[in-house]
Amino acid sequence: MKNYFDQLIECVDTIKDQKIHDFTLQIIYMVDHANWKNKASQNHHPPDERGEYGNSIHSIRVLKITCLILDLTEKTELEKDIIKSSAILHDCTRFGVYGEFSYTVKSHPQLAVDFIKKSGVDIPSPDILENILYHMSQWSSDFKYYPKLDGKDIIILADYIASNENILINI
Ligand SMILES: [Fe+2]
Ligand SMILES: [Fe+2]
After folding, report:
1. DSSP for the chain, written as a single string
2. pTM (predicted TM-score)
3. How close is the Cα of 94 to the center of ligand 2, in Å?
């Protein structure tokens, strides 16, 4: 059976732009593998994300939900690729660039951005850094951001996601 890290690597193929594809792959391999092998969380994440390769499973899920949301937008393929790359990499330093922490480091969005800037890899768009930096908005005081969604947008997204056969929300 394929492990979840291999599945994460396959997810990179959803990115069609070669430069963004290769950038994403390089960053995945440059951070310590613990960032993909460790659990995403002790609690509150789905049960399978609390075990080995939990952060890979979480990253795959965030990408899949991102793709569903992108289906409903008029964004160009290039814009979509930038957002997909951000989704895959958003938690790439959850345990530190070198995997030096055994818990989720609160500043992991900033760590990821600093690491990517210093990595020497060509950054296809500054939007990737900004998307990663703000992803913990609801838990962050430094990088607070409120999504600009009106009622129509929220209902369209909620209905589309809830209607997907692969998404089961516990009730
Ligand atoms: Fe995160
Ligand atoms: Fe996350």
Report:
1. ---HHHHHHHHGGG--SHHHHHHHHHHHHHS-THHHHS-S-SSSS-GGGGSTTHHHHHHHHHHHHHHHHHHTS---HHHHHHHHHHHHHTTTTTT-TTS--SS--TTHHHHHHHHHHHS-SPPS-HHHHHHHHTTTGGG-STT-------HHHHHHHHHHHHT-TT-----
2. 0.96
3. 8
CB 88 within 8 A of CB 11: yes
Q: Read off the pLDDT of residues 105-140 as tens digits, 9 standing for 90 and up.
A: 999 999 999 999 999 999 999 999 999 999 999 888
**How far does the centroid of ligand 2 lie from the alpha carbon of residue 17, in Å?**
24
- Kindly list the domain boundaries of the chain, sorted by start residue: 4-162
